[in-house]
Fold:
Amino acid sequence: MSLLKSIDSKFFHTEIPSKPMGKYAHFLTIRVTESYPLFQTDGELNKARVTAGVEDQSLMSRLAMFKRKQSTPERLVGRELLRNYGIITEACEYNEKFEMDHPDSIVYGFAIGDSGSEKSKVVVDTAFSITPFDESHETFTLNAPYESGTMSKQGVVTSRINQQDHIRPQVFFPSIVTLKDPTEGTFLYVMNNILRTRHYGAQTTRTGRLRNELIGVVFADGEIVSNLRWTQMIYDLMKDKIAPPDPLQEADVLDAAKEAIAQLMTEEVIVHTDLIGEAFQALLGEVKSLTSTEEGIQSLLQTADRDAKAYYEKYVKKQGK
Structure:
């Protein structure tokens, strides 16, 4: 029985296919920081030197949010839900010992040596900040005080002082999350993970709060525009509203993101159906209504689990043997 009434079932497979079948669901996401997260490699914030916009060809350094910094937290939120509702057990450990017959393994993929592997059906690419690097981060001095709360003990000042660059709040990262060959169950599973995930970046920090604003979904028979080009188009539309040190206004970013993606989709050479802005609200409302009750989230997870187990029995189990 279908869980979604607001969109045509033609966009979904009735079962997960074994080979690529040319159906794509692209989740249009604006990721907005709400504290001071860290997206870093070797102790430094990730950044890239690129052109500022599509029209504005001046060079700019932007913060970069690598793909694993996005997909891993969302995957872990999904695993937490599956464990909470008894679909996976504590014996199934991420990156250590995968059970292979549930939505996390089938949708996000796994590799277990000779036991088998499954390619991820979720594709995420590096996301870039709309605003320049220099205006999107700041340096903090970090310390580790003694139990007394001071930085000295018996007249000796501690050397446990360090500096670290952090991303500022209200920095925006446009990001397209693509699900290949979705069933209704896998579509809802991935969308729910995006909506629920709240912390990204370095897992050892107490910060990292980030909210995902979904502005639409594009169903297509191929891949669409890159995160970078979408970000550059948004920058062109918002260039006159960037006034550091003031952050961008979220409403302005969301409006520009919708306008930019609508323009970019007119340039595509694929068949696509765009649910953006108002056209997306019915679907978003239906999903939120479904995931806000225990019965609804259980039905969502069970539907995704049935799809995953059917795929496992038909294709993965034989491979493992």
